[in-house]
Amino acid sequence: MLKLEKHLYPLRYMSLAAVIASLFGAALMCFIGIAKTVRAFAAYINQGVDPNSTLSLKAANFAMAYLIQAVDAFLIALVFLLFSCGVYTLFIRKIDMAEFGVLSWINIANISQLKNILAELIIIILFVKFLEAALLNLTALSWEMLILPISTLLLALALKFLELKKK
């Protein structure tokens, strides 16, 4: 059995593909977030800023929608970044994040902790998506708009119950 373990141990480096791909995904989502922020400024500046005009209100709403999309892109980038850091820490080499001056909650000890962090970030992303949908459909709100926040609430409750069950 020892010979088998000797040959399986180097296979952990296959997870480097997931780490590298996630880092590229994080970089891409950061660029998308930056582009959405620039687009928000352009939408606001190009339409005018007269407070008495309904056109400027629409421009402000469009700018706000782009900024919410930018926040969403940055949050997704954070998910990719944390995922790549977690996979690297769990499978390749243990990293002490404290020596880099990073927040202590980023220290990932096991796969369960990584899943919990990712689930929390996904719930936040769903909430931001709801804000974006509500802002873009402000004049035509319907009961279907409640599906996303209710499902987000149910996911958050499920995550909370799973945490309580572990304790």
List its salient traits.
single chain, mainly alpha, 167 residues, 5 helices
Brief write-up:
The protein is mainly α and 167 residues long. 74% of the residues lie in helices and 0% in strands.
General description of the model:
The protein is mainly α and 167 residues long. The protein has one domain. It contains 5 helices and no strands. The longest helix is centred in the middle third of the chain and has 39 residues, at 54-92. It is globular and about 65 Å long.
Helix content: over 70%
Structural class: mainly alpha
Mean pLDDT: 80
Overall geometry: globular
Stretches with pLDDT under 50, minimum 5 residues: none
Give the beta-strand count.
0
Q: Tell me the domain tally.
A: 1
| SSE ordering | HHHHH
Percentage of residues in strands: under 5%
Number of helices: 5
Gap from first CA to last CA: 35 Å
Radius of gyration (CA) equals: 21 Å
Largest sheet report: none
